[in-house]
Amino acid sequence: MSTQEQAGSAATADRDRRTWDVVVVGAGTAGCYAAATIAEAGYDVVVLERKSASEAGHIACGDALKGADAFPEVISKSQLEPAFTNTGVDHGRFEIPQEDTVLEIPVPGELAVVDRWEYGRRVIEGAGDAGATFHYDTVVKDVRQADDGTVTGVDAVRQGDPRTYEAEIVVDGAGALSILQDKADLAGSTFDTNVTYSQFCSAYREIVHVDEPVEWSDALVFKPTERAAGYLWYFPRTETEINAGLGFQMTEEPMHLVDDLKRDLRNRPEFEGARVADKLGAALPTRRPYDSAVHPGFVAVGDAAGHVNPTTGGGIAGAAYAGTYAAEQAIAAIEDGTVDEDALWRYNERVMDHFGARYAALDVYNILSTAVDIDELMGLLAAMPGEQIAEALYSGSANLSWSLKLKALLKARGHYGTVWNLYKTKQRADELLAHYEDYPDSPAGFDAWQAERDRLMESVYETTGADPKY
Questions:
Q1: Which of 392, 381, 257 is nearest to 312 (CA)?
Q2: Distance between CA 131 and CA 180 in Å, rounded?
Q3: Integer distance in angstroms from the first to the last C-alpha of the chain?
């Protein structure tokens, strides 16, 4: 048989194949890094993607990528770099019209703005190069489970034909509000099912082309919407190609907030005569990471597990690491001959240790924002040093020297009630951060850990005056 005939035969086998070592649902960042890691280790993995091969990777995103210099190596940075369209961004520019103020906020680590569709194609290519198989035009309809609840595969429709995919482990990279979690019976495990629409935000973005270079091509621009619970962004892919978008809680009316974006675009002189090339919307989690993202035979990664910074909406780096950690634990479980919760638990620990604890603490500030008057909050932010805002946005906490505290208080005249509320909220966030750093090392300690976390959250709601989010 010729090489070409052998390749054709293998493609036919993959097309008709029913059983795999691992099935990954979703060809986003988390799914592709998971698939690449599994395939590189010599296991058979298939990625099920609902979009066509030409559309896969086309995802609504702010296009900002932080920390690309430290991504998992299974898909090399050199493979991704052609999608980096602006590596000259180094800070955030926070516009506060209520205070007639612009804050320049440094962003730690390597920062870039990417062409998200090109980036999406690159991570798919990387997973394919590692040996992963992709089935496009494949929509998952149901989850298959054994009598004891272990997930054993999925039912899908591929190019109009019903298909069954059986596997040792299913990796859920299907994004926010994943259908797999609606279909699976997860009640018999620690897997976090305390998930509602109120914990998510909608995002909408347009790719806008202008004739003249924008003055802020080295910055990520943020601006609050005219209504609470939303913000606008302008991220420069290049000096003349801008990702313009907004994020807002799902409790808000989307079209009213899209009108805010369009109004702001009309009123900014740099966008006069601008042309819109692409419009997309999506949902993303603005909540703490899932308490547990494992169930026998099943792990959730990326947006499907709340792996997004709840204050900035950034989720690419977290998704890459979550996919990698989940894959490494899946490999260990398969090699040990068991895919129960204990075998997969180390994945939870690694996520919490790397970024989950920080994100949980940051969600406390997100909760505070729902209970504070928007003008009060903007007035307080205008009085805060940019370095400390940056520290809080990315670490979950911030330290202020007494001299900085005094300066902030002097600038925050008229907002002392909000200052005190923020100070008490910071204490609650620090307590929560410390608790997450003691995340249990097995499912046996989970209930006690979760009970103490819930007690800490009660104090968060009491301090902030916010309505319970969970």
A1: 392
A2: 25
A3: 60
Would you state the structure tokens that stand for residue 189, as one six-digit string? Answer: 């495990």
Q: Of 57, 31, 28, which Cα lies nearest the Cα of 45?
A: 31
Supply the pLDDT for residue 51.
97
* Inter-residue contact 86 to 64 (CB < 8 Å): no
CA–CA dist 118, 132 (Å, integer): 19
Kindly give the parts of the chain with pLDDT less than 70: 1-15, 227-229, 251-255, 373-420
- Taking the CB of residue 115, how many other CB atoms lie within 10 A of it? 20
d(CA 215, CA 195): 41
Q: How far apart are CA 119 and CA 113, in angstroms?
A: 10
pTM for the predicted model, two decimal places: 0.90
| Residue (of 134, 157, 127) closest to 320 by Cα position | 127
**Structure token digits, residue 190:** 């620690």
What number of CA atoms fall less than 13 Å from residue 200's CA on the CB side?
A: 19
State residue 253's pLDDT score.
64
Burial (Cβ within 10 Å: 0-12, 13-18, ≥19) of residue 238: middle
Residues 345, 436, 456, 181, Cα dihedral to 10°: -40
Q: What is the pLDDT of residue 7?
A: 39
Q: Beta strand pairing status for 230-236 and 241-249?
A: antiparallel
Number of Cα atoms under 13 Å in the Cβ half of residue 33: 26
Q: Helix/strand/coil (H, E, C) string of the chain?
A: CCHHHHHHHHHHHHHHCCEEEEEEECCCHHHHHHHHHHHHCCCCEEEECCCCCCCCCCCCCCCEEECHHHCCCCCCHHHHHHHEEECCCCEEEEEEHHHCEEEEEECCCCEEEECHHHHHHHHHHHHHHHCCEEECCEEEEEEEECCCCCEEEEEEEECCEEEEEEEEEEEECCCCCCHHHHHCCCCCCCCCCCCCHHHEEEEEEEEEECCCCCCCCCEEEEEECCCCCEEEEEEECCCCEEEEEEEEECCCCHHHHHHHHHHHHHHCHHHCCCEEEEEEEEEEECCCCCCCCEECCEEECHHHHCCCCCCCCCCHHHHHHHHHHHHHHHHHHHHHCCCCHHHHHHHHHHHHHHHHHHHHHHHHHHHHHCCCCHHHHHHHHHHCCHHHHHHHHHHCCCCCCHHHHHHHHHHCCCCHHHHHHHHHHHHHHHHHHHHHCCCCCCHHHHHHHHHHHHHHHHHHHHHHCCCCCC
- The pair of three-digit structure tokens given for residue 243, joined into one six-digit string: 């990702």
Amino acid residing at 32: C
